[in-house]
Amino acid sequence: LSIATNRIETLEPCVLSRLPKSIKRLSIARNRLIAAAYVLEYHSLVNVEVINASLRNSPFPFLRTISGCKENLDILKNDTVYHPGNCQNDLQYPLWSNTSGRLISVSAPPSLRTLYVNSSKIFSTVVKFGILPNVVRQVYLQDNIIHSWIGPMHGVENITVLDMSKNFCANIGKDVGVNLTGLLTLKLAENALGPRFQFDLTGKIFRNLRRLQFLDISYNRIQALPFPFFKNLRSINHLYVSNNLLSDWCVAMGHMVNLTTLDLSKNRIGTISPRGMAELDLVLARGNLSINLRNNKLLCTCENLNFLEWMFVNRAHFKNIDLYTCSNAQKDYMNINFKQFSKSISQLKEKCKSYTLYYIIISVTGTCFLSVIFGVALYRNRWKIRYMRYTLFQRARDSHLLSSSSDDLFLYDAFVSYTSKDRDFVIKDMIQKLEQDNGVQLLIRDRSFIPGEFKCQQIVRSIQESRKTICVVSKRYLKSAWRDYELNMARVEGVEVRKSMRYVILILLPEVCNGGYPKKISDFLKRDCFIEYPDDPAGYEEFWQRLCSALQENAQD
């Protein structure tokens, strides 16, 4: 029965109830229908499979009109019965009850499978309501003004196709589709659901749509989608997210084993993050996925080379890739010709060839080389550095610190460096032979060092206050760290201040002479700054005479 394209605004009572029960298709499209009591008679059309009530050109507050119905039957008992007679008096209006309280319910014809109410200027919201037991499969509500979908909806488990496109909707509840478990096709295009989708961080909105195969959320002002947003869409085949504001695509997709179409055209995608590419790789490895990235703002820059190379490797999966273009928003962009993708990628690689590794190698090598040179220089001058450090420290404290090598400024004729093992030789022999017999003033640490003062500072000061330094060299002397310190400080004093190595006099005991001369005193030996102590008593007298002469002579190389 078709009464389409008239000016019908309402149907008188009992008209629908008394129509032939054999009617399977009813079209009342393109009329001026308003909501009235006749709406409650639709369920009497027991054999109607298709109702077309679309293209109504007069808006009406649909749910507001029927929300006052007094219904009194529990839908869960499924015992609604139609009694012939006075159609208005015999109509029964069930009550849908659950733990949440009373819900609005709608009675659908028992055989209805397809309902068209599109382009009917319905101004409403999807509130908490239910449809009495039904076999409805397809519902087309697109191009209306159903601006808020809260739900939840009950009695919708059998619906397989739902079109809610172009409804100016900006609000969607997370439980609105909790009972749409049989849904195969869902069209939500041309709404304003982007902000709501963006904050669905756990994927609750689509959580029960495990059988869904087709999803269209194009034209929804989507700027970003949480990673788990599609986590339950295990059967999805076609996913349309075109004409949005996406700048990246990073959502869980590893479970989409049947996905064949992914439309991301007309967004703002410049690149896809590594995590997003990894998820897409999981799908590409299983099937013939077709990706549409046309009319995006692809970044053809060096920073985006990895993504472009990934596109090139998977170019067979990108629909109409020859028509892709690059964004010119970046200063260093390169205009890639996607018709000659291979050549363009090679040129971009050449342009972006990074010399960073070479710079790093050269920098590290240079740094290591300079560090070695610096380390060697530091090691070779370590004693000089120590000497200068203590000299500067003493200059700040001692006003009498020597700044000249004039003989009149020295307090002692010689500073004696020796080990504790050779103390008897210094105290018994040297004091007697040099101080008592020849009037030489010696600085001996066991006699002159001040207790409690830093030893290293006293050593440097003693060397500076003495005209000469005498080192009593034995095998134990050569192994002593402190004697090594005194020897090297004396060496620095001689080279840097006295300008002569002859400032230092080495007394080589027989145990050193017999075992060969060590390297650490070789520079003194080359400049003849040593005197060998004889192992024969007959040579003692000559030894002391030579030592006195060496102490009296001026230090000259």
Automatic annotation (TrEMBL):
What are the recorded Gene Ontology BP terms?
signal transduction
Q: Which GO terms describe its molecular function?
A: signaling receptor activity
Q: What is its main location?
A: membrane
Instruction: Give the membrane topology.
Output: Single-pass membrane protein
Query: Where in or outside the cell?
Result: Membrane
Keywords (alphabetical) are:
Glycoprotein, Leucine-rich repeat, Membrane, Receptor, Repeat, Signal, Transmembrane, Transmembrane helix
Residue ranges annotated as transmembrane are 357-379
Matching SUPFAM superfamilies, A to Z?
L domain-like, Toll/Interleukin receptor TIR domain
- InterPro entries documented for this protein: Leu-rich_rpt, Leu-rich_rpt_typical-subtyp, LRR_dom_sf, TIR_dom, Toll_tir_struct_dom_sf
Family annotation (SMART domains): LRR_TYP, TIR
A family per Pfam = TIR_2
Q: Cellular component GO terms, alphabetically?
A: plasma membrane
Domain TIR: from-to ranges = 410-551
Identify the PANTHER family for this entry: PROTEIN TOLL-RELATED, TOLL-LIKE RECEPTOR
| Protein family per UniProt | Belongs to the Toll-like receptor family.
The protein here is known as TIR domain-containing protein
